[in-house]
Design brief:
Layout lengths: L2 H12 L8 E2 L2 H7 L2 E6 L9 H10 L3 H6 L1 E4 L3 H13 L3 E6 L4 H9 L3 E5 L3 H15 L2 E2 L6 H17 L5 E5 L4 H13 L5 E7 L4 H8 L23 H8 L2 E5 L1 H15 L5 H12 L1 H4 L3 E6 L14
Helix pairs in contact: 1-8, 3-5, 3-8, 5-6, 8-9, 9-11, 12-13
Length: 315
Amino acid sequence: MDKRQEIEACSARISDYIEHTLIMESKHIENFLCNDLYFKCENFQKSGSFKMRGATNAILQLSETQRAKGVITHSSGNFAHALALAAQKLGVKCYIVMPHDAPYVKKNAVLINRGEVIECAPTMDSRERVCGQWMEETGATFIHPSNNRDVIIGQSTSAKELLAVHPDLDVIIVPVGGGGLLAGTILAAQVFGKEGIEVYAGEPLEADDAYQSLISGEITFNESTNTIADGLRTNLGDVNFPIIKEGVKGIVRVRENEIISAMRVIWERMKIIVEPSSAVALAVLIKERPLFEGKKVGIILSGGNVDLDRLPFDK
């Protein structure tokens, strides 16, 4: 099965379980940036983020025997919510290993969808160790939030839908954390985009492992991840990195104040709720305005799961 067939089959498979999210425009932002802009609003997706797509596809690809034993993952929030919701819809037990400092709104979302939350320290080593222990005890199948082919193909369907409406896009910009959305967007752009379409990613300067990995040619890990964009604190993996290394045009790092400013623009001008990780993509466009000026740009707003008690501009 080639990439086009793989993505189209996935799109049909998950269609009944996801929202085909709307595409919004903002003349105010367009006029300021001198672009035709199209925002793919995954903040309106079931579970509140694009990750519902990959989670659903991954579970649907499991055997009945695997589904009977449940699924497990480690996640800082959005994939946890997505996997719990997808598992509930499909009648599958779900275990989620989450950092103890994950936003309350994201922990609660797992519990509401009958997922079992298992807390760990806020480090990748702790996540993996605790997850491994529970896999041994339960026999549950591990589904990685971003470094899994079925998850990546699921995430590709967002860009596929965007390109179905606007096939002449010059650029698509997405945030990058674990790399699943970026890798999926690259695959969709290669198949459904026009010749020469470019995919860029935005990343917090305080968690710039993807940028460093692209520069070095090898997967690099952050020593610290002190960023408000909590959904982007994870690392690339050996499944998605080759796709990213070959297909991304560039990764732009943005500062914390730039993320907050872009988030505020979206809230104020578009009247929609997005989380800081989503705002990273617009922050790239604002920061590198001359690079994109005059181009037709698609931006994937990755999610809208925000703890309203911790808004960065509520001062």
